[in-house]
Amino acid sequence: MSTTTPARLGEGIDRVDARVKTGGRAEYATDAAYPGLAHAVLVQSTIAAGRITALDTAAAEAAPGVLTVISHQNVPVLHEAPDRSSSLPPPPLRDDRIRHHGQTVAVVVADTFEQATEAARLVRVEYAADAPVADLDHPDAEHDQDPFGTDGETGDVDKALEAAPVRVERTYRTAANTNNPMGPFATVACWEGDHLTVHDCTQGPSRTRADLAATLGVPPEAVRVLAPYLGGGFGAGLRTWGHTVLAAVAARQVGRPVKLALTRKQMFTSVGHRPDTKQTVRIGATRDGRITALEHRAWQSLSMADGNYEPVSHTSQSSYASPNITTRDVQVRLNVPAPGSMRAPGDAQGNYALECALDELAHELGMDPLELRRRNYADEHPITGQQWSSNDLRACYETGAEMFGWARRDPEPRSMRRGRTLIGYGMAGTSFFFYQADCAARVTVRADGGAVVESAGMDLGTGTYTVMTQLAAELLGLPVDGVRMVMGDSSLPAAPSAGGSGLTGAMGTAVHTASRHLLRSFLDLVRDDAESPLRGVASDAVRAEDGRIVRTDDGRGEAYTAILARHGRDALSAEGSAESPGQDGAVVPTGPYAAKFAEVHVDRDLGVIRVARLVTAAHCGRVLNEKTARSQLVGGTVGGIGMALLEETVTEPHTGRIANPTLGDYLVAVNADIPRLDVRFVGRPDPTNPNGTKGCGELGIPGTAAAIANAVFHATGVRVRRLPIRIEDVL
Ligand code: MOS
């Protein structure tokens, strides 16, 4: 597209950061270059539970180029996060206890990466090992009930289930999955006096700054975190991990800038993962398919000394109408690495169990699964009775079914086939959670007529640079190439992390507010200016267009440049902020919705399962950029296909060791696994924020695995209640 023609908001323009990225000019954390940069390498435990009995660093310290070796024996005081469910896992190297396999036990700092790597092999660690508690069903595992305070209840599920003419009670399991962004995480830390600069793979520079300051015991103003670009995150960048803290500690200790880059294998133990789950769903219904009782219980794994916010059963509180609902979450403490968010945390697993159970109910009733969902559409929040800010799930059902050709489905399992290929159609609905945190932004218009928009939030590859540029261009009446978006720097106005599908709503609202404030500042400047046609005009009586502020009554106005020139200003700036909307009012802000329809082909003899096509109809409110939003849905769907059929982090129960920490052994979907993915956006703008947006970043994931699992049942007649679904499950 030509950047000289003003782009309409919503239009799928190319990413504004496309050239800088594809041209190799985007600075990632690992690119940060400092004179005298030293390199840190982790030493990790080879047991999953127990104690360090001896740690000998003499040989490592004597190795060429080694500057220091830091372990629990000499690490400076690191402060614990007060809140166990915070973004900050317990500090690294805190004591001699081992809580998971691959736990960091030392960090070696040397002149070069090779020297540090070699010296890390020379650190001698002896352990007293205990038997690990490493699987979800382990009888000795400690359970935390209602860990997030999100359990919910209305009516009496037990009584309603007993009275229900039709009942489905099933247990489902989902495997642990590991975030595998293309770019392994790395940190470069540099102290200048008491001031720390950190280049980090984080999805939240403001968050990381606060976490580092708290851990190191320094004021937040003394820390600057930079993350202008990130090679993907999928949620791994939502917590401040030990390697980031250790890079800062090491840099201070050696008095030089330090780089700490994780290997791919270390990514499996050091930056979180999607915890595995066991879930039971019990549904009671009438013969005509009205749900009268819905109970969803979830058990998910957690590390020994950590908290992580990830409600799994919560999605069943708001997905379908039912007078009786109970949801319960339990976290199970295991000797595994600390989990973290991984794309659609909680909902990814919870939606899978709920939507498969609904499919089982439909089969039980002899009813079309789509019709069952139509009949149980929730007109209001089933537990609180609140009105939805907007919920066009029904439009998703109808549009998706039409696009897919759902009507061609023969309801009988194993009835649709072509030669040795069994064909299955499956669908699922998704009601995704709402999340939006406080955010600030600053908007500046310069004397040359260009604008700069600044916010500490970052773009993890989703398109935030682009949509915020488009939004500011529209709000300020400027061409897209007249606006420069600056992000990923904690010294800019504070922003929440890029996560929970919440940044576009938060930052978009802040940019909206800042833009309104900026127009008001321009009007303030000309309030008594006899030469200005805008003199004394109120800010609600103007609009911005073509680089000008114009009166809505008579269309007279003047250019930003003219006002700034006449008043001798280089630029004019304004800040704006957005607060997290309350969720206790009569109207509850709603997240996005989607209906997904999958066709799978299963080889009758070999059991090979292939997704043949997948259709998504999504209600994401107002879409700011059709192309980047679509890419989010498509990319998420690819992750969902991986979750359904390929991805599994295998922990050996007797050793607690992750058996497949490589991209050769941990299978992610590749091009050959991915069919045509159709996405269409339907439904209304959402009134919760002034831009009408809903989150869409994670909507590709939930619903995808369930639609595929339901299609596998339809193709084969075999109900597999565990992810990933494997060849041997359907033979
Ligand atoms: Mo997403 S798991 O909120 O990066």
Automatic annotation (TrEMBL):
Pfam families recorded: Ald_Xan_dh_C, MoCoBD_1, MoCoBD_2
InterPro entries associated with the record: Ald_Oxase/Xan_DH_a/b, Ald_Oxase/Xan_DH_a/b_sf, Ald_Oxase/xanthine_DH-like, AldOxase/xan_DH_MoCoBD1, AldOxase/xan_DH_MoCoBD2, AldOxase/xan_DH_Mopterin-bd_sf
Keyword check for Oxidoreductase: yes
Keywords in alphabetical order: Molybdenum, Oxidoreductase
GO MF entries: iron ion binding; oxidoreductase activity
Aldehyde oxidase/xanthine dehydrogenase a/b hammerhead domain segment(s): 23-131
Name of protein: Xanthine dehydrogenase family protein molybdopterin-binding subunit
Phylogenetic classification of the source organism: Bacteria, Bacillati, Actinomycetota, Actinomycetes, Kitasatosporales
